[in-house]
Amino acid sequence: MIALVLTFIPTALLSLRYLSDSSVKQEIKSETKYIEALGYEYQPQPKDKQSWLPKLISYGKSSWSVSELDSFSDESRNILKNDQDIAPQTLDPDNDSLLILTPVKNNAGHLTKYFELLDKLKYPRHKISIAFLVSDSTDNTQKLLIEAKQRYQELGPKKMRFKRFEIYRQDFFYSLPRHLRHYYDRQFDRRTMMARARNYLWTRALENEQWVLWIDGDLEHYSPNIVHDMKAYNKDVLVANCLIHKTGGPYKGKDIVYDLNSWQETPKSIEMVKKLKETDFLVEGGDTPFITHRKYMNDFGKNETIVPLDGVGGTFTLVKAHVHRSGVGFPAWLFQHQVETEGFAKLAKANGFGVFGLPNYNVLHTPE
């Protein structure tokens, strides 16, 4: 199937990139331009600004000892010499740059809070890029995002502008009533669709950023310092603990764990997995037929600041960009009995990356 790739930039110079699995007729004004910007231009860098290169590019200088040089093969030295030669024509990575990614569907009612929290974030604004994927929406989510882009990137003060503000559209024509979304027999289709949405978003939006932050579009609260705090751990994949305040039921008035997709395997869960059929799909919560025996974020002690995990959710997850660049995405197929974010964690670990959680660093989800 050939995907239709269009970018709409209205006269107000707002860019809305539209990707669709099927050809959809659009009413387009005559002054609309079609632009598809791919990647970025290479810009020459001064010779003294080549931080992307390994320190060994200076191997020809007398400051390097013979023993240090001997540890590299002739081929490795030739590769580094080649890197040194082309360094002035190579784009330097944007250190500490952050790409915030949020897939949204019918999210209009939560966007005010979303940007309110983003505005309180204590992180250099010029280092932040944000990108949204709008899927299968029937409300005015898309319209409000376009207006937000205009407000931040054109009409508002320059100090409030993001490095990039991107909006993409990818419809999957998948519909599921909200009250059915946690039913086990609907989970596989729902979660694989979400995996596809996430993959469309990160593969399209990621440029030369060094960090990727996945944020749900309907969070109620997170600390303004959370990005600095999470980055300080310097982990490949790190997830905060997402809670929800219950307004009714047996947990009324309490904050309980919302995202059960962040978990650690236990001896019992490992034994359980060994007995599964290859086609068995595991998901936490709801009416799942499997008792997984996994350890969730609320099962850790108050003194356990950071813990290794085997599954993660996507409510607030910080990822080093090189994890995605190495090919680790969100499986839309069963990988070790998991899909989407839990499958991402399993796939990351299978590729040698570390996956961790902060069981006592909380973000709060909007009450449902």
TrEMBL record:
<dbReference type="InterPro" id="IPR029044">
    <property type="entry name" value="Nucleotide-diphossugar_trans"/>
</dbReference>
<protein>
    <submittedName>
        <fullName>Uncharacterized protein</fullName>
    </submittedName>
</protein>
<keyword id="KW-0732">Signal</keyword>
<dbReference type="InterPro" id="IPR052086">
    <property type="entry name" value="Mannan_Polymerase_Subunit"/>
</dbReference>
<dbReference type="Pfam" id="PF03452">
    <property type="entry name" value="Anp1"/>
</dbReference>
<feature type="signal peptide">
    <location>
        <begin position="1"/>
        <end position="15"/>
    </location>
</feature>
<comment type="similarity">
    <text>Belongs to the ANP1/MMN9/VAN1 family.</text>
</comment>
